Amino acid sequence: MFIYSLIQILMCYDVIMIKLGKLVSYLLISFIFFIFLACTTKNSISSADTLRSASFAMPSAPPASALIKSANFESSDLGSSNIGVNENSLIYQDRKIIKNVDLNLVVDDINKTIQSISSLVDQMNGFIVSSSVSGEETINMSGYINIRIPSENVDQTLKLVRDMSVRISNESSYTTDVTEEFIDLTARINNLKATETQLVKLLGKAEKIEDILAIQRELTSMRGQIESLEGRINYIKRTSSTSLISIVLSTAIDNKPIYDKSWTPVNTIKSALRGLSGFFEGFLDLLIWIGIFSPVWIIFSGITFFIYKRIIRRFKN
Questions:
Q1: What is the pLDDT of residues 49-80, one digit of tens each?
Q2: Contact, 102 vs 173, CB < 8 A?
Q3: Predicted confidence (pLDDT) per residue in 92-136, tens digit
Q4: CA angle 165, 134, 267 (to 5 degrees)
Q5: Which single residue of 4, 145, 188, 194 could bond 131 by disulfide (Cβ 3.0 to 4.6 Å)?
Q6: The pairing of beta strand 139-150 with beta strand 127-136
Q7: Do the Cβ atoms of 165 and 85 come closer than 8 Å?
Q8: Alpha helix (H) ranges present in the chain?
Q9: How far is Cα 160 from Cα 167, in angstroms, rounded to an integer?
């Protein structure tokens, strides 16, 4: 019995060992397969990376529209970089300042003062904008003169003009910084000119009539904008390089004569006779009007008198 049991155990052991051998073999084969698969995947990934890097190293040619856009962006970037340089140079070197000065001066002789100021303007390389004198000579006389002087000569000009006066009744000055506007206008002009250049290139490539007409309309509009902006820039340059000085002149009260030199007794008699003649003319006009409208006055007076009498009688009764 013991021997039979031992034989059974040995047979089971053999079966178990056979099954374990198969399992180990299966596991070993699976392990080798997974190692091979991992190596293959790594190689494929490496080759894919190589192909991807090669594709990046050899870019494809862009379409024509992309080239045109690229050219537009390049011209815009170039213009922007140049504008940035110009902005820095303007900010730190050449600010655009418009300066205006108002002067109210009391002088001995207005005409002589205006002549002196005119001569001074020529010496300072300026020019007269406008001038005027009003009022009778030495009586209620006033005048003004507006001049433009180069900015570097303004202080000297103001000093010399002040010296021409008896006193200064009022003086004020104010400035306007237009540097930012100048920079903005310059940038807009550069961008418009870059766009204009691209439109000219497109015009040379256009084949259809409607395309040519559309591009020409855009060019006309673009050039109009450029001319308008350039006009504004020229105005800023001109007004910032010179200063406007507005001078109002009046005569000192002490210098006015006690009596009017133009007065004469004959003129007074003539004025009195003209007044008397005017009085009689007016009186005669009144009599004529009354005579012409007398029927109306008579009828109106009669009706009024009749009504008055009736009212009086009623009160008496």
A1: 433 433 333 333 333 333 334 434 444 444 44
A2: yes
A3: 457 888 889 999 999 988 889 999 999 999 999 999 999 998 876
A4: 115
A5: 145
A6: antiparallel
A7: no
A8: 2-57, 64-92, 110-123, 154-163, 179-205, 209-241, 265-292, 294-316
A9: 13
